[in-house]
Amino acid sequence: MATEAEIKKALRKVKDPELNLDLVVLGLIYDIRIDGARVDVTMSLTSPGCPVAGQLLDQAREAVESVPGVEHAEVELTFSPPWTANRINPTIRAALGL
């Protein structure tokens, strides 16, 4: 069975094209639920009007499904609570000038 750490490592390969930072660093991953070979991820976007939303969701699902032991992944999009830059690691946020 996959671990949350393995899932996060896979999700770090998916980058926001505007900021060139991964989903985990940006704080866009809200929840990871592992049930045997199935993984459900709840994530957000930096903006509800993100033009590449579908692409990011597909990339996130593919990344999770690439983890050994994962047979099926679902990625759900949420805006509750809305994403803010405060979800980014403080060190990285400072480096970005946010």
UniProtKB/TrEMBL annotation:
Pfam families associated with the record: FeS_assembly_P
InterPro entries in UniProt: Fe-S_Maturation_MIP18, FSCA_dom_sf, MIP18-like
Name recorded for this polypeptide: Metal-sulfur cluster biosynthetic enzyme
Gene3D superfamilies named in the record: Fe-S cluster assembly (FSCA)
Superkingdom in the source lineage: Bacteria
Domain MIP18 family-like: 4-76
Lineage: Bacteria, Pseudomonadati, Gemmatimonadota, Longimicrobiia, Longimicrobiales
